[in-house]
Amino acid sequence: MYLQTGEAKYGKSIMERVIDPTTTLSDTVKCVLVSFDSTMRSNLSVGMPIDLMCYERDALAVRKRRRFEQGDPYFSALSKEWSAGVRGGFWALARARVGRVRRSAGRHPEPTASFIHRRRRGS
Q1: Bridge-partner residues for 65, per DSSP?
Q2: Phi first, then psi: what are they for 99, rounded to 5°?
Q3: Which terminal residue of the chain, N or C, has fewer Cβ atoms less than 10 Å from its own Cβ?
Q4: Which among 93, 6, 3, 85 has a CA at the least distance from the CA of 15?
């Protein structure tokens, strides 16, 4: 079981997509840090420092511990690489096909995704 403190709802999907029973402890730590980075971007009440503690199954002794402070070189690089990877992955996805909405008498349609996208880019 992996436990993340803070606002788990924002970064939880990252851990659910990446971590499985075969994931190494090192990769799990990396995933948890990426999850925290995503949580911090989504919720201003979550921030540095991050205190990380790991212990082995059935052991009551802490074997690994680290505090990540604001500006930590590893965490900063991880955050930049994750952001670039997410943006790259997003732009590589197939384009969504959105049909035109026809106006009904007296009703205004919701804006289509393409309208929202153009409006944001043009702002």
Answers
A1: 53
A2: -80, 160
A3: N
A4: 3
> Which pair of tokens denotes residue 60?
């009551």
Whether 35 contacts 9, CB under 8 Å: no
- What does the domain layout of the chain look like in residue ranges? 1-123
Those residues whose C-beta lies under 8 Å from the C-beta of residue 58, and which sit 6 or more positions away, are: none
Give the predicted TM-score (pTM) of the model: 0.69
Residues in the chain: 123
Q: Give yes or no for a cis peptide into 49 (omega within 30° of 0).
A: yes
CA–CA separation, 58 and 44 (whole Å): 35
**61-96: pLDDT as tens digits:** 888 899 999 999 999 999 999 999 999 999 999 988
Q: Pick from 25, 38, 24, 36: which is nearest to 86 by CA?
A: 38
Closest CA to 52 of 31, 34, 67: 67
Other Cβ atoms within 10 Å of 46 Cβ, number = 18
